[in-house]
Amino acid sequence: MMIVFKHSTMMPFFSFTHYKSFWRSSIAFAFAFAFFLTFLLIANSLTLQTQSTTIPCNKDPYKELNLIPNPNGTVTRPNKPPQSPPAPDPNLNTLVLSKDLSINQSKSTWARVYLPRVALDHSSKLPLLVFFHGGGFIFLSAASTIFHDFCFNMANDVVAVVASIEYRLAPEHRLPAAYEDAVEALQWIKTNRDDWLTNYVDYSNVFLMGSSAGGNIAYNAGLHAAAVDENQIPKIQGLILVQPFFSGPAGQVRS
């Protein structure tokens, strides 16, 4: 069987001339499409900015948060979550001792220090966890039962000394007041001569920890700690941020 191949004189369906024309058209279309997308993105961005700046907020933040403003600039918080007292007596049948120590009386800041009972029988010093409670910068306290129990269990389970910091709240004391209190607490820990701290804390093994708004405070305190002389504050080994509360673009909250 013989197979004969013939050369066709018919012009190919997709010649080089067609290819150049198609390529030029594709480039033109791509530029036009990119310009169109850019226009849409800019228009959408301007629309969002206009909406965020021109739409008024008719809600009363005090009412929404159930806060009662007082004439002297303070607020009354009708909702009072349960609080727990410290337990400093070593004769008590408890796994963790706790006591409150004043940091700055003029600011009403203080620390609740938790000491695991096992530390009383050991000569080696323990890590220190400096904890900042949550509450949206507005609510709760280091004495709130939810945080008291958390720090109690953490001191017992981790076998570490825990210092839970009572910082000033907004709106009476707006940021950066809480950040300033956090830094002052670190300086206070470095210089305080309380026996629970001096006898049981390893100042070279300190961690900052916080939940929600407290995570935000711990983060900012850590930034400050990285920029100051080590002689002013304890040596910070790391941060433990539990669902830290941060604000994003256009008031979006990220946690």
Automatic annotation (TrEMBL):
It holds the Pfam family Abhydrolase_3. Residues 70-89 are annotated as: Disordered. Keywords: Hydrolase. InterPro entries: AB_hydrolase_3, AB_hydrolase_fold, Carboxylest/Gibb_receptor, Lipase_GDXG_HIS_AS. The keyword Repeat does not apply. Residues 79-89 have a biased composition (Pro residues). The keyword Hydrolase applies. It comes from the Eukaryota. PROSITE patterns: LIPASE_GDXG_HIS. Gene3D superfamilies: alpha/beta hydrolase. SUPFAM superfamilies: alpha/beta-Hydrolases (SSF53474). GO terms for molecular function: hydrolase activity. Residues 129-245 form the Alpha/beta hydrolase fold-3 domain. Belongs to the 'GDXG' lipolytic enzyme family. This is Alpha/beta hydrolase fold-3 domain-containing protein. It comes from Glycine max.
